[in-house]
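W.,

You were right to be curious about this one. When I first looked at the sequence I had no strong expectations either way, so I just let the prediction run and decided to look at it fresh. Below is the sequence, 508 residues in total, followed by the output.
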Amino acid sequence: MKIHNVVKANAYFDSVTLMLFSSKLNTIEGVQQAAVMMGTDHNKELMKNSGILTVEFASSVKSNDLVIGIKAVTQEALDLAIKTLEEQFENKTKAVSGEKVSFKTVEAAVKNTADLNFAIVSLPGRFAKTEAMKCLKNGMNVLLFSDNVSIEEENELKDYAVEHQLLLMGPDCGTAIINGVALGFANVVKKGNIGLVAASGTGLQEATVIIDKLGSGISQALGTGGRDVKDAVGGKTMLLALEALSKDPQTNVIGIVSKPPSPSVLNKIVNLVSTFDKPVVACFLGASLDVFADTKIIGCETVEDAAYALVNISTQQSLKPGSLTDDEKSIRSTSGKYLRGLYTGGTLAYEAMLILKHQLGSIYSNIASDEQYLLKDPELSHQHTIIDMGEDYFTDGMPHPMIDPRLRSERIKKEMKDADTAVLLLDCVLGYGSHSDPAGALVEAIIEGRKTQTNENIILIASVCGTEADPQRRSAQEEQLRQAGVIVMPTNAQAARLAAYVLGQKGA
């Protein structure tokens, strides 16, 4: 067995590029495993555990370095992998210096392009604030995709944006739809008269997808970044976005999707909405519906409920989410005891936890709001567990799992090997920015997991967040999952309810 390690000091490549490099190497015959990653502690540990990075070599790698690990059966396979990687680096360099990149600086773009009013900033956090501020000062609204931007920097950017009536969406804003253009992780949905503001990416995706499935459409969908509704930021983007939708002639109904805002931010939202002549529906996941008492806001417990309410108001219908069918209730027996949920969407994971805790009580998680149920080690499940695989611990130097499913695939196999696993609950998120075949990646992991599973009757439940117009096509993704024995539910909320029903029948 041949192991080859290389470090490129202070060499930054975006996570998608690194995933493509790694995938290319792993297709070479004779290469057992390969990875190209930023040298964070978490990534080094992953590579050491996979046997593609020696302990001695790892000690010399810093977090800003690019580290390469290749394990091959023969020297010939290793040589081919090294040559292939060198070609990938060379092609990337040529692409960056080619015609696709018109300008190297914000200033040059502004100078040479008329009427610029929108920018997407996706850089390592330490550089993001400077470039975002340049865009704002040149009159552009900004979607700040980057994470690891400090609270101080976020406030500085948003204070300037609000003063100049510009939207600063983010940091860590993953989803938006502006005048029909999908940005970041977003789905292909119909245009319509429902406007949304969300402090969550996959929550915004789930809402737009359900609205599309019900035959309605989206005017605008604006992300704020998750910290925006906390006291430290004060809802600056949320309030400006709501005001913009109230004045938008394309928007007749307004929706809000978020974890509960701080009391001070909630008060600001309530006061602002009281001045609107458009109906407003809100889902503050985990908040009591009592917070909406004596306000003009129509409160909903789940993203699914909010989507239905928005469509009903928009179309003057009385649609309701479906109940579990008799077929879905004909539960197979399972000798396992616990639920294991592995999610790529943080808001979808949180929504599932809220639904399941009514049946199961305690749910352990890496995103639990109650410290009592916060996992000490995100790598180890404990009793009923739901994991957000897109949380910073898993994405530090790695692509988001909606882009690169490898970490979740490994975790699926691990959970299927555990005899205590009764139900495996999964999401499958489609759209721009996501993996080209997320269901295919899930199925491959499930097939591998079945080779070593000790409980032969694990029940697999999933939902697909996507539309027929998405590049991956929802029906095709659902069919792949069904063929692999997965029960596919129409929404994430209904998938969680089925999991709760299954475990309820077992007396969980």
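Here's what jumped out at me. The CA atoms of residues 361 and 508 lie 9 Å apart. And, maybe more interesting for your project: The two ends are 47 Å apart (CA to CA).

Coffee later to discuss?

I.
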